[in-house]
Design a protein that fits this description.
Blueprint lengths: L2 H49 L5 E4 L5 E3 L9 H13 L2 H13 L12 H16 L2 H15 L2 E2 L4 E2 L17 E3 L6 H11 L2 H17 L10 E4 L6 E5 L11 H18 L2 H16 L25 H14 L6 H15 L34 H15 L4
Helix pairs in contact: 1-12, 2-3, 2-4, 2-12, 3-4, 4-5, 4-6, 5-6, 6-7, 8-9, 8-10, 10-11, 10-12
The chain binds glycine.
């Protein structure tokens, strides 16, 4: 063997061994976190089962009690989804049994037409249930939910309306057709419905929504506005605002995470390189931001006025980590994204963010925020932070490196 061949061989071996080492440490990390999750959520499941009720957990009330929700709450798909991820991770029947009960308890959401979150609600519950059981009756629910969501599509603007403007605080904002960046997360339901039904209408709506959002929701630095309001006849943009961020011109942390995740899904489903480029640009905005802390868990808004004395949002971090594991499979920046995702997960699993066993009302992660401007869910656990943390663990486990 010539010297140059020996050198190549040695470097090759070192590369393989390093990759194996990383694989091994990811495996240890995933297993340790799953052990914790099994015990923590297992305790929650036992407590729920003692009540004899089907309870769907969201967060903690101000009085310290656990907040259980009805099916119309926008987060009602996450706790069922948590059951499905636990079943997938452990193959233990108890998660599947409660997953079925919880999932089927929100079945009527397939007919919900008064807001856009039906994608989250049905995707995380029935979507996972269908993926893991192949139960054909769930196909119908997914397609019906996509039909319901499609009633909110406004062809003149090429967008699916997020919120109705007739009630509560929304009626005071002067919006006609508000669309929030979070709505990118509902598109997966459309893609799934087309795959199941063969009806391309859903796919077309998803693509139009993604294209319109790409055109109007992003600033030059690829941060996004939270709310863009449309004229439904002409498609003109009427206003650009925030609802959950610090100000109209700020970058609300969870919004940036929803955008990153949403365009990663759109690239997976369409292979349109513009979506990949946008997802990479959003990632770049997040990770180059001078206000992103070293542990990569963002403040609730990148422009919050009192950084570093502002709350973090673990939910935004968990969503980002999960999105990055997927994006790493499509991008030339694979190593960079894996490194960032691993770092986020390490931070989330540290004692700063991960609950002690038996504490935190048996949720996994601490330190998320729902909506600071509304004074709601300030520095609490949230079911969607736990959901995306478990999803990120699954994606970490399945990495093909
Ligand atoms: N989709 C609502 C939120 O992220 O708070």
């Amino acid at each position: 063997m010539r010297l140059i061949e020996k050198v190549i061989l040695v470097f090759g071996m070192v590369g393989i061994l390093t990759a194996c080492g990383q694989d091994k440490s990811r495996e240890v990390f995933v297993n340790e976190n799953l052990e914790f999750a099994s015990s923590q959520i297992g305790l929650h499941l036992e407590a729920i089962q003692k009540t004899g009720k089907i309870l769907n957990a969201r967060t903690i009330h101000e009085d310290g009690s656990t907040r259980y929700i009805g099916m119309h709450d926008w987060t009602s798909g996450f706790f069922p989804g948590i059951m499905w991820y636990m079943y997938e991770h452990t193959n233990d029947r108890k998660w599947k049994d409660y997953g079925i009960q919880l999932t089927e308890s929100i079945s009527d959401i397939q007919y919900l037409t008064w807001h856009h979150d039906v994608g989250f609600m049905i995707g995380c519950s029935f979507g996972n249930a269908y993926r893991l059981t192949g139960n054909k009756t769930y196909e119908k629910v997914i397609v019906q939910a996509a039909k319901s969501l499609s009633t909110r599509f406004k062809p003149g603007a090429g967008i699916t309306q997020s919120w109705n403007t007739t009630n509560g605080w929304m009626s005071k904002r002067g919006w006609e057709c508000p669309v929030i960046i979070d709505n990118m997360m509902n598109l997966e339901l459309f893609f799934d419905a087309t795959r199941i039904s063969g009806d391309s209408t859903f796919y077309d709506i998803a693509v139009q929504h993604a294209n319109t959002t790409m055109k109007n929701h992003f600033r030059e630095d690829f941060s996004s506005w939270h709310v863009v309001d449309y004229d439904t006849i002409t498609g003109a943009v009427r206003q650009k605002n925030t609802a959950q961020g610090y100000s109209d011109e700020s970058a609300w942390a969870r919004g940036q995470a929803w955008g990153l995740y949403g365009y990663t899904v759109c690239y997976r489903e369409t292979k349109n390189p513009e979506y990949l480029e946008l997802a990479e640009n959003i990632a770049n905005f997040i990770f180059m931001h001078p206000n992103l802390p070293e542990d990569l868990i963002p403040y609730w808004d990148y422009n919050a006025p009192n950084i570093p004395n502002e709350l973090r949002d673990a939910s935004a971090a968990a969503i980002t980590a999960s999105a990055l594991y997927e994006l790493s499979a499509y991008s030339d920046k694979k190593e960079e994204y894996l490194e960032k995702a691993d770092k986020i997960m390490e931070s989330l699993a540290s004692p700063v963010y991960r609950a002690k066993p038996g504490e935190n009302n048996l949720f996994l992660l601490k330190h998320s925020v729902g909506s600071i401007p509304h004074g709601a869910e300030i520095d609490v656990p949230l079911n969607y932070a736990d959901y995306y943390f478990l999803e990120a663990l699954k994606r970490m486990k399945e990495l093909d490196i």
